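$ run holo --ligand "NAI" --emit tokens
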Amino acid sequence: MNHDIAFIGGGNMARSLIGGLVARGHAPAAIRVAEPVAALRAALQADFGVTACEHGAQAVAGAGTWVLAVKPQVMRAVCEELAPLAQAQRTLVVSIAAGITTAQIDRWLGCGLPVVRAMPNTPALLGAGVTGLYAGPAVDAAGRDFAQALLSAAGTTVWIDSEAQMDAVTAVSGSGPAYVFLLAEAMVDAAQREGLPPEAARALVLQTVLGAARMLTESDADASELRRRVTSPGGTTQAAIETFEAGGLRALVAAAIHAARVRGAELSAAND
Ligand SMILES: NC(=O)C1=CN([C@@H]2O[C@H](COP(=O)(O)OP(=O)(O)OC[C@H]3O[C@@H](n4cnc5c(N)ncnc54)[C@H](O)[C@@H]3O)[C@@H](O)[C@H]2O)C=CC1
Ligand SMILES: O=C(O)[C@@H]1CCC=N1
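-- output --
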């Protein structure tokens, strides 16, 4: 199988994935990116040594795998423009777009192609991402293996059997880093309101998030048990947790993730 990879779209998420691939030894010469914004092309070339082109047709020529990394709103037009080349090359297609289905990609590219739908997240830049993967019906074992290897450069991977669940994956882990960043922002603001200097507030919050994330992933205890161990009866944590619960934090998180999942389905319908 031809291991050259063409990225269509060289924005935030493509940059994270390309950074992960190059850091893990994928030859920059075997990666081409199509990106209309000149400044982004220059940065990708300078930072990773990959070839950046203005037009999709230049990037995909001879590439065995295409990674579609444009916004859902432009995906149909991008695919329809590349359809003749896709049919000629019979390429493996990996789409990372929120909402857009493998059937839509396949139809727009002219039908019958192996399409993998992937939902990575931005910690991919550090190799600390997680990607949900769904293989469309035309993907064979070699295609699955290559897609998994490609996304493994960004972190861990989880195969999903039902494509309908990919919108939930998007809502949980695709968007999820932003939820953690929002909590961090709110904690830094609150720390300053309680009188801490900005730099101290930032240092305390960032290391707390990192330390808590490491405990979640490195200890045997689950989140609720780890929380219990911090919460002395009648102590400070209990006062905070009771405030979160009284304010409906769990219901709010559920509603937020539901809204993200619904938006994924809307993106599919609105851009068909
Ligand atoms: N940002 C994130 O955390 C994640 C994003 N995604 C998905 O990744 C895709 C890209 O998202 P971002 O990187 O955040 O957006 P972005 O806007 O940073 O990147 C998209 C890039 O595509 C380029 N582009 C537009 N038209 C093009 C064309 N015809 N040919 C080639 N490139 C073209 C744009 O100039 C832009 O740089 C979206 O579909 C999104 O749903 C998936 C997982 C996480
Ligand atoms: O917000 C979005 O639509 C994209 C998909 C997951 C993360 N960012």
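-- notes --
The pocket of NAI (ligand 1) is lined by residues 8-14, 34-37, 40, 56, 69-72, 74, 78, 96-98, 119-122, 174 (CB under 6 Å).
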